[in-house]
Amino acid sequence: MRAMLIVNPFATATSPAGRDALVHTLSAHFHLDVEHTTHRGHAGELAQRAVTENVDVVIVHGGDGSVNEAANGLLDPPQVSDPARTRPALTVIPGGSANVFARTLGIDGDPLQATQQIIGLIDSGRRRRIGLGHTEDRWFLFNAGMGMDAVVVHAMEDKRHAGKAATPSRYLWTTISSFLRNAGNSSTFDVQVPGGPTVTGARFGFVSNTSPWTYLGSREIRTNPNTGFDTRLGVFVATSTGVLRNLPLATRLLAQADPKARHLFRDDDVAAVRFTVADGAEPIDVQMDGDYIGAFTDICFGHRPDALDVIAPVPDRIVADQITSDSTR
User: Fold this and answer.
1) Of residues 160, 95, 156, the one with CA closest to residue 290
2) How many whole angstroms from its chain centre is CA 219?
3) Scanning 141, 220, 230, 276, which has its CA 20 to 30 A from the CA of 211?
């Protein structure tokens, strides 16, 4: 078994001693290539190389941004992707501040425990295929969004570049302050779901590939509770950024109650969705898997089932479905 370990040495929750321990443990079980990222996009370049070198598993030790880069390196762009091509499986040893993808997959939050978990999964042959969201040229693993959440991500990136840690409390305060600061912003966009309604005057929109959409510390935030890696996309669109209108909705999200509001459009299983800014209006910020990717006037999100092999625990529900399917053949 040949594995490539891609390490982001600048990730929030990594340390030299911790990285050395991971390398030592993994090297005892696999033929291991260790690569450290040095610039934005490097994890994708390394994962692309892993495909050409017939590596069996790519292990990313870093945050969600590094994992997103690696997934995009393993796969061809969505419009030219060849599902029949053999590619390495992907797995994660958490090293970032949020680690949404790893936590959603059921990977242990402690890097050393996660390492032992992944070794056990690989040795037992346990893996699963998951669906991914995508734009025309890029894949996303768990969420994307236009408007307020992208404004928050952009602000958090600015703070991290200024040397401030991405703590849950800083994320929460940045979210609250961004809502207050942008409550009077008049920027809106339209949301189109093929075969479904068109929502006009959207102030922010989330697109989910799974649930939870994110975490606030240990608390799950589920915007689309019925969306998962084995469904299509979830859409969560609000037509107001008013504090009084969104406070009850935020309370429901924090309480993990079913998200409902009069100014909210939600669908937990759509094939695609398009966000369009009115002609002549300013582009609006967009984020993908917690990374700010720029401002857009028109962006489409689609879904591809069974797009990526991952080394992760298989949920009991999927195991039960497989057993039922096998018994009826």
Assistant:
1) 156
2) 16
3) 276
Is there a single domain that holds both residue 58 and residue 179? no
pLDDT tens-digit profile of 144-153? 999 888 888 8
Task: Give, as one character, the DSSP assignment of residue 241.
Answer: -
Beta bridge partners of 275: 191, 299
Same domain for 297 and 316, yes or no, is: no
Q: Which helix (H) or strand (E) holds 133?
A: strand 128-134
DSSP string across 116-131: HHHHHHHHHT--EEEE
For 175-206, the pLDDT digits (tens) are 777 766 766 667 899 999 999 889 999 999 99
Extract the residue ranges of the chain whose pLDDT is less than 50: 319-329
Same domain, 287 and 146: yes
Rounded to whole angstroms, how far apart are CA atoms 152 and 167? 13
How far does CA 222 lie from the centroid of its chain? 13
Please indicate, yes or no, whether residues 160 and 260 belong to a single structural domain of this protein.
yes
Domain, as residue range, for 189 = 140-304
Q: Are residues 144 and 283 in the same domain?
A: yes
- Whole-model pTM above 0.85? yes
